[in-house]
Amino acid sequence: MPVQYPTSQLTIIGQLSERWLNAQLDEHLPIIVAEEKERPIGVAGRASYRIKRGSLSIEQHAGVLFATLPLALDISVCKPFGSGCFQYGSCTPRLDIEMLWDGDLSANYELKSPNLAAITRERCRIGIDVTPQIESTARSELAKIQRRLDRTFSQVDESVATWAIESHPPLGVWPEQCVSWSVTGVRQRPLRVENLDKDTDPPGKHLTVGLQATGQLAVFECQGTLPTSPGHSLPAPRITQTLPSASQVQVPERVSVESLRTALHEQLDAALGSHRLRQVQLASDGVYLELELGGAECGLAWFKAQLRVVGGDLRLHQPLALSPSRAARKQLLSQLSATLSERFSLPLLGSPWIKGEGKRWLKDLIAPAQAQLTQQDLNIAVTKFQAKSASVQVATDGIYVFHAASFQLRLSAAQRRNERSSSLEVGSD
Question: Which of 123, 234, 250, 339 would suit a FRET pair with 80, their CA atoms being 20 to 30 Å apart?
């Protein structure tokens, strides 16, 4: 009777606010993008210009995801005369820089780099329409940025693809016991724009994405050999439009047969008085206990019990005497059944989980990942943790306790103190 590991589902929802995206933009791109005064332009005289950016906005229409950065240009030309330069023309064209991208991951977990485009909102006429020259310059600059973006995304994709196929160390979830995660399926909810107002800081528009991994958590001794699995490569993600927000996990803990037998003898030998526990046998339908009866009712008696988790301990549930005979003996066996039920309890490694410390336990478990995310100004939050009833499975090599829980994992930008976007509206001074 080998152990049958139940299915676990780990879901993580990522969200980046429009406000945070603008804060990052403020750090890397000044409000005045470029500025120059009285630059010689040949027979036309001299040109002055200033390019000011506005706030980045994120939108989604008909399934297309894009971000828009408005640019305001202030252009003037003048003719030198004496010690001065007399302005004879000006214009204030408006351009939008748009980034369009596909929010679906590829089979090897690649995310395509966004496509850049410049859209003219207001043209520029100084005697003649010079908009085509402005657009040509914008396209040339965007082509350079596009190549840099493609290289950056290529490097990120390569790192993610490598991570998806390499092996990862097991998690030391309990003292001396580790858990490996065998993923059998991955679902992705595509990147999209959502208005998040309830229980969200900061509220407003967010880029959101969801990933759910389905598989089994298997337990083994940390010094032992990693259990065999279908392979380390993650399966290609399947696209879905909806994902449950909560993770549902079954974290296993193994109690060896020897540990159970030792605990039963240590706790029951004194409690049974003149009677003695002779042997313990495990079967798929429960635990069988053979008792040697002392006193007037000497002989052998077998009891069958289920194993249950009660208050963080492994207990004998409803021990039942098999084939009781005379009334006096039946009364004795009933008393012994009560003793077995009341006097045996084996503390589990997962007791803190069951007793309300699961959220802290989970935070400690993901602390190494959080340390790496902090370097990227990202944070992973554990919310709505709820421990559920643990289940017990008897197998050939021991008793497996599956600690069930649900919780939510949210990946978001690390909130900085007094963080706010300093972006100015296009057209303001």
Answer: 123
Same domain, 355 and 343: no
**Phi, psi angles (nearest 5°) of residue 349:** -65, -30
Strand partners, 254: 400
* Averaged pLDDT for residues 351-355: 72
CA angle, corner 243, sides to 237 and 248, nearest 5?
Answer: 95
393 lies in some domain: yes
Residue 425, pLDDT above cutoff 60:
no
Q: At what angle do helices 257-271 and 327-343 cross, to 10 degrees?
A: 120
Q: How buried is residue 128: exposed, middle or buried, by Cβ count under 10 Å (0-12/13-18/19+)?
A: exposed
Token duo for residue 16: 């980046």
The structure tokens listed for 319 are 């021990």
Whole-number Å distance between alpha carbons of 82 and 281: 109
- Domain identity same for 214 and 189: yes
Nearest partner of 50 among 27, 85, 74, judged by Cα: 74
d(CA 304, CA 394): 13
Identify whether residues 244 and 177 lie together within a single domain.
yes
Extract long-range pairs of 363-370: CB within 8 Å, 24+ residues apart: 365/171, 365/173
* 328: Cβ contacts below 8 Å, ≥ 6 apart: 297
Structure tokens at 56: 């980045």
For residue 294, how many C-alpha atoms fall within 13 Å in the half-sphere facing its CB? Answer: 8
Half-sphere exposure at residue 418, Cβ-oriented, CA atoms within 13 angstroms: 0
Question: What domain count does the chain have?
Answer: 3
- For β-strands 391-395 and 125-126, DSSP reports them as unpaired
Please give the pLDDT value at position 298: 80
